[in-house]
Request: fold
Amino acid sequence: MLEEWLDVVCLELDLNRDCVDRDLVLDLARDVAHGVARPGAPLTAYLLGLAVGRGTDPRAAASRLSQLAMGWQGERHPPA
Reply:
C-alpha cells in the first residue's frame, strides 16, 4: 500500500518516482522519532525536502541529521 501511495503522491506533485528514496526518509524519521520526539519526524523529513530542493545532497544531509538525532540530549546546537 505504501508503494501505491508514493506513486500517487509523486504523480500528483509531478515528481519523478525514481528520485524518491523511501528508505532514506523513513530511516531518518525513525531516528528522529526515537532520539528526539515523534512529532519531530515529519517536521525533519519536510525540512530535509526543503534542503534537497535547494541543492543539498540528500544522503549527506540525512546522515548528519540522523547522527544529530541519535545523540540528541535536548541541548541547543548553533547553526553549522
Summary: The helical segments are 2-12, 22-35, 40-53, 58-70. The radius of gyration is 13 Å. The chain has a mean pLDDT of 92. Residues 10 and 44 are 19 Å apart (CA to CA).
